[in-house]
Amino acid sequence: MSEHILEIRHLSKAFGSHAVLKDIDFTVDKGDVTSIIGASGSGKSTLLRCINLLETLTTGEILYHGQDVTKGKINASAYRAKVGMVFQNFNLFNNLTVLGNCMIGQQKVAKVPKEEAKQRAIYYLNKVGMAPYINARPDQISGGQKQRVAIARALAMEPEVLLFDEPTSALDPEMVGEVLDVMKSLASDRMTMLVVTHEMAFARDVSTHVVYMADGVIEEEGEPAKIFTNPESLRTREFLKRILNG
Amino acid sequence: MIGQLFTDIGSLWNKYGTVYLTGILNTLILAVTATLIGCIIGFFCGILQTIPYSSKDNVVKRFVLKLLRIIIRAYVEIFRGTPMILQAVFIYYGLPYFFGISFKDIWTVSIIVVSVNTGAYMAESVRGGIMSIDRGQFEGAKAIGMNHWQTMLHIVLPQTLRNIMPQIGNNYIINVKDTSVMFIIGFNDFFAVHKMVSGAVFKYFPSAFMEMAGYLFLTLVSSFLLRKFEKKLAGKPNYELVNTDQLVMTAGNYNIPTEGGAPFDEKSRE
């Protein structure tokens, strides 16, 4: 019934002689909330960055609605506008206000008229609870607030998929909750999401699909209930034991 | 002694006041214009120099971009590495020599020489400024679909401008002073006035005193204005919270699309 939005085929990535990702295959369907978990250095973030073409793949292909986006036939910018990304370090534009951050992409990339861009920006800022702060600059708000603005900025482009690269890892513990709450509400709105995370509770309770990565390969994937209660792989079991009891 | 100095300055001012003022105005116009054009050259070089290319790009693109970087490099090294006074002479006499173009208008040559010279320094300042911008800013811009040109124009260069404002100020102040070498090709700047007037009435020191005071006045006022501008670029120190209800009413006009839109529809194509 569902068409694959993204299909990753035989993706490999090496930095010099160091292979970070080895022959990765997986698909993202509409409405999926996929959590990618795994130890640091297992290649999770690199995978996400490859999907958004921030890194060039060594081999393999990324199909977006069946079209390969790695071969240069499809405009990388147009593709990225449809596949939003939220970074660990927020990467809000320091020269713009909160509102400006959420408008600039719409105006310059999607060519949305200014007034509509503003309404759309406010609509999504309101969704993440940051609408009162439209006049603030990024350096004037807290980390959790920055990340919520970054999510609104990505949403304002109305992407088909949102990629989250460890969105709560750079946050103080008391701010993690507010960002996870926003992500949960997106998940309940059936937003297609791909989340690299260390938040096991999120992976277990919110996502529809969990991918466990180790040493650049997908060690195991499946429904969260299965991965968390009855993993097949020994490595998965050990990782989860370490994380959940640690 | 001091009394004598002021009498001399008084008499110089009475006789040549407007000449001095014209000189100071010419210096100011040349310095401001050339610094602005120099900045534009510098920013342009900065954008061109940072166009990314990888080994996956085709040969032509790689060749063109590499050539571009070499040309900019050569431009910077040549104009940074030779005296401006010589550049002025070189261009003023060189162009008629080779191309038969002679400049009737000394303003044009002067502006070209000082702009191109400033541009060489600015290209380096801008390059440094761009390098100082966090990679995350580039990635954030890329991630919402901006291309290199858009990223530079809307995100990176505004921040670069703020960071290198002190250096632009530096260049401008240097230009106020160093445009004095343009007397060599007959540009009538503030210093040329000194040469002309003191040669006519033999009052070298009083005239030099006026020149010192005049240049210092120009640079001090400039410094003050530059500081003000820097503060303005830094933005407001505070922000006001906005009443949410009002905003929601505004945003209420916006209808969320039920579908995510067709992939690569007309809107998203560049």
Draw up the topology in text:
The complex is a heterodimer of chains A (246) and B (270).
Chain A: E1 4-15, E2 18-29, E3 33-38, H1 44-51, E4 59-64, E5 67-68, H2 76-82, E6 83-86, H3 98-108, H4 114-127, H5 143-156, E7 161-165, H6 173-188, E8 192-196, H7 200-205, E9 209-214, E10 217-222, H8 224-229, H9 234-245
Parallel strand pairs in A: 3-8, 3-9, 6-7, 7-8
Antiparallel strand pairs in A: 1-2, 1-4, 4-5, 9-10
Chain B: H1 2-49, H2 59-80, H3 84-99, H4 106-131, H5 135-143, H6 148-178, H7 190-201, H8 204-234, H9 244-251
Instruction: Kindly state the percentage of residues in helix of chain A.
Output: 25-40%
The structure class of chain B reads: mainly alpha
Largest interface, C-beta within 8 A: A-B, 54 and 43 residues
- Counted up, domains of chain B total 1
**What's the β-strand tally of chain A?**
10
Structural class of chain A: alpha/beta
Largest sheet of chain B: none
Mean pLDDT of chain A: 92
Cα-to-Cα separation, first versus last residue of chain A: 40 Å
Mean pLDDT figure of chain B: 86
Write down the overall geometry of chain A. globular
Distance between the termini of chain B: 74 Å
Main sheet specs of chain A = 6 strands, mixed
**What kind of oligomer do you see?**
heterodimer
Assess the beta-strand content of chain A as a share of residues: 25-35%
Q: pLDDT under 50 segments of chain B (min length 5)? A: 258-270
| Radius of gyration of chain B, CA atoms, in whole angstroms | 26 Å
Total beta strands of chain B: 0
Q: What is this structure, in a nutshell?
A:
The complex is a heterodimer of chains A (246) and B (270). By secondary structure, chain A is an alpha/beta fold. Helix content of chain A is 38%, strand content 26%.
Keywords:
heterodimer; A: 246 residues; alpha/beta; 6-stranded mixed beta sheet; 4-stranded antiparallel beta sheet; 9 helices; B: 270 residues; mainly alpha; MetI-like fold; disordered C terminus
